[in-house]
Amino acid sequence: MKASVIALGKIGLPLAVQIASKGHKVLGADISGAVVDLVNRGEVPFPGEADLDTKLADAIRRGLLVATTDTSEAVAESEAVVVVVPLMTDLEGTPDFRAMDAATRDIAAGLQPGTLVSYETTLPVGTTRNRFLAMLEEQTGMEGGSDFFLVHSPERVFSGRIFSDLRRYPKLVGGINDASTRRGVEFYEAILDFDNRPDLNRPNGVWAMDSVESAELAKLAETTYRDVNIALANEFARFAEGASIDINEVIEASNSQPFSHIHRPGVAVGGHCIPVYPMFYLAGDPQAQLVETARRVNLEVPGRVVEIVAKQLGGLDGKRVLVLGAAYRGGVKETAYSGVFPLVDSIRRHGGHPLVSDPLYSDDELVDLGLEVWDGGDIGAVIIQADHPEYGKLSASDLPGAELIYDGRGVLDPDQFSEIGSSLRVIGRGTTAR
Question: Among 109, 228, 317, 431, which one is least packed by beta carbons within 10 Å?
Fold first, then answer.
């Protein structure tokens, strides 16, 4: 079988390599010539994905993966097309379809009869059928579900552990009709292996959904649920801070009750998933008051954290405040919707001088992101924004002059700060679920 993967980013490239690992020929398409050149040399364009370097090198060596900037040409040679082009939102939370629409037009230009098209990009409910099916049919003159086959199969993986997640979680496939669903199930069964999961109510593997809309909603539901849960934890944390209660102790006790699961609070929730996908849900269900409120609560957390720090220090005027972590989560070099940006903005609004440090980013890269790099000099306060493992080794001597640390990710080693006296206080102790 020959397949194409459209967009070779942190989800698409590992998926292309996974398909190649099963002996299938893969054409990877990306709009970036630099990414295409790196992939064709067997070099990973981004850090942090376990085993991707060796698996990519093997796929290139065996001639099973070729990258190109010509999407239409790749599609024309393929029996199956997997689309993982990112769908973002504008500042008002409205989905921005420009990149997805452009990719769909390119796919249509090369689409051959009998081809399967699978959208893995997370989408608002109804998008696959009402938007992309219509575009593909209009441009090709073919009928979806008979001349070509169309499914939605949401990605359910985390950057850094994609290959293990592909094995661990059932692969959901919902088509625009039964014929499309069958073709989608056959395709994914040919490219994936699955772990034994006795905890599931049916065997782990490719799960056929009743409709393409069911598959779209399944991904939005699981992500939106987490956003609402995290918002609830952040509300508990706000109350606990005001009442001098240890919120981590409370959550641990609450989660000991069967069927109870409360995420831990945190300084921010970033990445492409939690900040974005609830907005996709709201795009289809504007009456969802709880979802809208949860999103607002989580967006307000960085500002609240800075307010707490400012209150503890008697104000931030002229104080240098270090934000540790530009990445949205530990070990992943990605700043999409990272909490670093609202934290920096809030520190400035309070009259402080925000500085940033991150072990995954060079000074030049931080500057390119519009952030000021910490020079290693004295600081008044520290806010831990990303749970990089390196931060677990920090001690008071690594943070000269600091009077206060807000450990927004719960990564500090308490033993490193057990004898620091009254000059440095550690507060926060939250951990953001991902």
Answer: 317
